[in-house]
Amino acid sequence: MKYETIQAASIANQYGTLSAIIADDELFLILKNIYSKLDAIKSIQLYSSALRRIDDKNLKVRVKELRKTLNARKKELSSMT
After folding, report:
1. What is the 3-state secondary structure (H, E, C) of the chain?
2. What is the pTM of this model?
3. Nearest-CA neighbor of 42 among 16, 11, 21, 68?
4. How many whole angstroms separate alpha carbon 41 and alpha carbon 23?
5. CA angle 80, 7, 54 (to 5 degrees)
6. Radius of gyration of the chain (CA)
7. What is the maximal distance between C-alpha atoms in the chain?
8. Exposed/middle/buried for residue 6 (C-beta within 10 Å: 0-12, 13-18, 19+)
């Protein structure tokens, strides 16, 4: 259930909810897992855009880690085509 809730919140680009997910240790790992399994470059671009809107300085390191995950997945997908 947590997985689906986190996925829905990240898809909806609810920045406040996304910030809360990133701040929570367990939920952050689930979100990172979701990002590592994305299968469309357009989705990756949209998620990256949402991360740019997170302005909480305390989450900076985690947001950076999520961006790395998205960029790595984007490279994987690009190399498959």
Report:
1. CHHHHHHHHHHCCCHHHHHHHHHCHHHHHHHHHHHHCCCCHHHHHHHHHHHHCCCCHHHHHHHHHHHHHHHHHHHHHHHHC
2. 0.88
3. 11
4. 25
5. 95
6. 12
7. 37
8. buried
Contact 21, 54 (CB under 8 A): no
Per-residue pLDDT of 9-59, as tens digits, reads: 776 667 888 999 999 999 999 999 999 999 999 999 999 999 999 999 999
Read off the amino acid at residue 57: K
